Amino acid sequence: MEILRDLLKENKTRILFLVADGIGGVPHPDYGNKTELEYAKTPNLDELAARSVTGLTIPVDHGITPGSGPAHLSLFGYDPVKHNIGRGVLEALGIGFKLEKNDVAIRGNFCTLGPDGLVLDRRAGRIPTEESGEIVKKLQEAIKEIDGVQIIWRPGKEHRFVLVLRGEGLSDRVVETDPQKEGKPPVEPEPLEEDARKTSEVLKKLISRAKEILKDEKKANFILLRGYAKPPELVPFPEKYGLKSLSLAYYPMYKGLTRLLGMDTPDVGDSFEDVIKAYREMGGEYDYVYLHYKDTDKAGEDGDFLKKVDRIENLDRHLPEILGLKPDVIVVTGDHSTPSLLAGHSWHPNPTILYSPHAGADDVHIYTERACKRGYLGIIPAMKLMPLALANALRLKKFGA
Amino acid sequence: MEILRDLLKENKTRILFLVADGIGGVPHPDYGNKTELEYAKTPNLDELAARSVTGLTIPVDHGITPGSGPAHLSLFGYDPVKHNIGRGVLEALGIGFKLEKNDVAIRGNFCTLGPDGLVLDRRAGRIPTEESGEIVKKLQEAIKEIDGVQIIWRPGKEHRFVLVLRGEGLSDRVVETDPQKEGKPPVEPEPLEEDARKTSEVLKKLISRAKEILKDEKKANFILLRGYAKPPELVPFPEKYGLKSLSLAYYPMYKGLTRLLGMDTPDVGDSFEDVIKAYREMGGEYDYVYLHYKDTDKAGEDGDFLKKVDRIENLDRHLPEILGLKPDVIVVTGDHSTPSLLAGHSWHPNPTILYSPHAGADDVHIYTERACKRGYLGIIPAMKLMPLALANALRLKKFGA
Q1: Residue of A nearest to B82 (CA)
Q2: DSSP 3-state of A150
Q3: Domain ranges, ordered by start, for chain B
Q4: Average pLDDT, chain B
Q5: Paired residues of B246 in beta bridges
Q6: In whole angstroms, what is the distance from residue A348 CA to residue A337 CA?
Q7: Any idea which fold B4-83+234-392 has?
Q8: pLDDT at residue A328, rounded to an integer
Q9: How far is A309 from chain B (nearest CA, A)?
Q10: Do the strands B222-229 and B245-248 form a parallel or antiparallel pair, or are they unpaired?
C-alpha cells in the first residue's frame, strides 16, 4: 500500500478505532455452543452494526496467532511480518519505559549460579518482586555507564528486569546468555556480526561487574540476558496517514506501542472509565483516536467465559457515551481473538464493524463472529482497515485518472 | 498471473465483458436506504444473475478509489499499480488521439502572464473552446517541428490542449512548468534525469516560440505544461490471452485505452445503441468483446440517484438484445463504483456477474451489491476476472500434472 501516501488529503473528519482486546471467540460447549459475543446482550453494539458494514479481519495470516505487538501493528496498517517488534522492546514498553531510537532493550532474569559456574535455577527461585526490585536498584547505582554507553536498569515482576543500553553504534545482534536449560553454563554474549563487537564488549563487562555485585546474594547471584532488540524503524503513524492522532489506553504496553508510533499518548488513568473520560475531553481535537479496552482479553486469557461475557456487556453499556462525540468513521474490532475456551490468544479473525454514512450495503444487524462473516467487508487483512477508514473519511484522493 | 501465458489454448468460445461504468453504489438515505441497483427494476439482469455466479470485485485495493485508467487495466487483467497510465496519455486518449510507442503526451493549459512575468490566471479566464481551438490551430501552423522532434497540438475544452512530442530519445522525466499557484512565475522544464536533456531543450524552445506567437493575446498569452507521460509498455491484450479482441465504446477515452492495448477499436457511433448495433454485426467474429456503457457513471458523477436508476433500467432493457449473440462466457460488472450519494468514483467493490454453463454453484438471483456479496465468487481482485473468464471459456490448460 505504498500508493496510499500519494493519495492522502486533509479534511475535518474524525476517525475512532475502538479496540476491544481479544473480543472474538469460538463457540463454547458449556454455554449452548455460543461464543462470548453471541451469549452477551449487546444492544448498543448491535444497533451500531445494523447501521454499519461488517466483516472479519485477519491480524497476520490464516492460522497465525499473534502477540499483542504484531496484532496492533496490523491494526494500525503496518505489515506485522516485515516490522517485527523484538521481545526486549515489548518488555520495555510493558513497563512503560520510553525507548529512544538507537536503544537496545534486553529482557533480564536473575538466576542462581552454582559454585561450578553452572546455572542451578534460571529464575532464581522466582524471588519476590520487592526483593528483586531492591537488587535492581543496587545494580543501577553501581553500573550506570560502560565505555560511554549509558546502562539503564528497570525492575520487572519476580525474577525479571529490563536492561536498556543507550548510546551510539549499538547492535542487537549478540548471542543470548540464557542457556535455556538448568545445569549448563551461561553463554558468552559474543557478537553475531562485526557491527555488534562494541555491544558484546559492553555486555561482557556489564555481566562481570554484575556478578561481582551479586556474589553474596543467596538466590539472585547472577543475570541472564535475552531478547535483545532495537525499536523497529517505522514511519510515524501521524505522518503515514496525515492524521493528528491520540492514543488512550490504561495498560502500559499499549501506551508504549503507540508512543513508539508517534501518537500522542497521555497517561490518563488506570481504568476504561478514565480512558472514556479523557476521550470525551480531548477526542474532539484529534483526527484519529485509538481507544483500547483490555478487559475482554484478560477474561479470555483467564478462560472465564462468563467474565468475558460480562466485560463485553460492560463495553456495550459504555458505547453510547463513547459515540456521543459523533466521530465520522467508527471502527470497532479486536486486535486478535482470545476465546475463553482456549484461555489464550488465537488465530481466529476479529469481528469488525466499520461505520460511516457511505460505508456500503450490509444486512448484518448484530455484532457477532457469525454475523460479521456475512458482512459486506468479507474476510480481509486487518491491515486494510486503515485504508478503508481513510476512504470512508473521504481522506483519499483518486488513484490515477 | 504470469503462469497464464503457458496455459492458454484456443477454441471457438466467445467471451463478452459488458462493463457498466460506475454501476455500483451505496445505500442512499433519501431512497429507503437502497442502492441504485436495489431501487432499479432489472428483470433481465436478475435473470442472468440467477443462472450465473456472482461476486464483488476490487479494482485496485481495499479503500482505493481508482480513476478510469487503473480501473480498466485491472478489468483487463493488468496490474494497475505496476502499470500506471500518466495524465498526459489519458488526456490524449480522451480526445481520441492515437498515441505511438515513443510519444510523450502532455496536458497543456493556456494561462495569462502579467507584465512582471508572473502567472495572473492559470486558466486564462477559462476562454471559450472555440477561441482556444483557433489559438491551437495557429500554434500548430507555426510550430511543427523542433530539433527533429515532431510537435503535435490538439485542442481540448476551454483553456486545455494536448501536446504530443514525437521522435526518438524523448523522455517524460521533465519538470512541470505549471507553478500550481497564481502570482508565481512559470517553472522551467528542466530535466529530471540525464536522458531527459533533449526533451527539456525541445520544450524550452517550444515555450519560448509559443510565447512570441501568443504575445498579443489578451488572456491566453502563455502556456503551462504538465502530466508528461509516455504510453505504458503493456503486452497487447490479444497476445496476452490469445484472443481476437474487439472493443466497442462510445466515449473517446475508452476507445483510446483499448487501442493502446491493441484491441480492434472501430469508431461506431456516439450512443450505446450504436455500440449494440455494431456488436450484433461484428461480435460473432471475435473471441473477446469489451462493450462499454458510460451512462451509469455519468449519472452517478452528477449525484443523480434517479437518473442512475433510469440508466441502469435502460441497460437492463437492452440486455436481451445484447445477449442474443449467445456468447459462451458473459461478465457483467463495473470498472469502479460511482455512488450518487458521493457524486464521484469510489472505492466500493463492483457487483459482478459471471455466466457460463459451468460457472459454479450460486444462490444469488438478483443483481445488487448486497446480493453479489453472497455470491460464489466472493470478494476478489478485478484482475482475476480475465483468468476466470478464460477458465470458463475452457481456454486454459491444466497447470502441472
Answers
A1: A3
A2: strand
A3: 4-83+234-392, 89-229
A4: 96
A5: B264, B289
A6: 6
A7: Alkaline Phosphatase, subunit A (3.40.720)
A8: 98
A9: 30
A10: unpaired
A384 φ/ψ angles, rounded to the nearest 5 degrees:
-85, -5
Q: Among partner residues A358, A361, A390, which is closest to B369 by beta-carbon distance?
A: A361
* Alpha-carbon gap: B349 to the closest alpha carbon of chain A (Å): 9
Fold of A4-84+235-392: Alkaline Phosphatase, subunit A (3.40.720)
Q: Do A374 and B374 touch (CB under 8 A)?
A: yes
HSE value, Cβ hemisphere, 13 Å, CA-based, for A206: 31
Query: Given pLDDT bands bounded at 50, 70 and 90, which one contains residue A1?
Result: low
Specify whether the CB–CB gap between A38 and A47 falls below 8 A. Answer: no
Chain B residues inside the 8 Å CB shell of A390:
63
C-alpha cell at B100: 505511438
**A3 vs B38: CB contact, 8 Å cut-off?**
no
Give the DSSP H or E segment for B57.
Answer: strand B53-58
Pairing relationship of beta strands A149-155 and A160-166 according to DSSP bridges = antiparallel
The alpha carbon of residue A32 is apart from the nearest alpha carbon of chain B, in Å, by 27
Contact A384 B63 (CB under 8 A): yes
CA distance A4 to chain B (A): 8
Residue A398: list chain B partners with CB under 8 A.
Answer: 65-67, 344-345
pLDDT per residue as tens digits for the range A55-72: 999 999 999 999 999 999
| Model confidence pLDDT, tens digit, residues A8-41 | 999 999 999 999 999 999 999 999 999 999 999 9
- Residues A174-199 have a mean pLDDT of 96
The angle at the Cα of A251, spanning A249 to A252, to the nearest 5 degrees, equals: 105
How many C-beta atoms lie closer than 10 Å to residue B224's C-beta?
Answer: 23
For A360, the closest of B68, B85, B348 (CB atoms) is: B348
Q: How confident is the model at residue B157 (pLDDT cuts 50, 70, 90)?
A: confident
How far is C-alpha A28 from the chain's CA centre? 27
CA distance A296 to A314: 10
Contact B67 A398 (CB under 8 A): yes
**Residues of chain A neighbouring B29 (CB-CB closer than 8 A):** 357
Q: What is the pTM of this model?
A: 0.90
B348 neighbourhood in chain A, CB within 8 Å: 360
Test B347 with A396 for CB contact under 8 angstroms.
yes
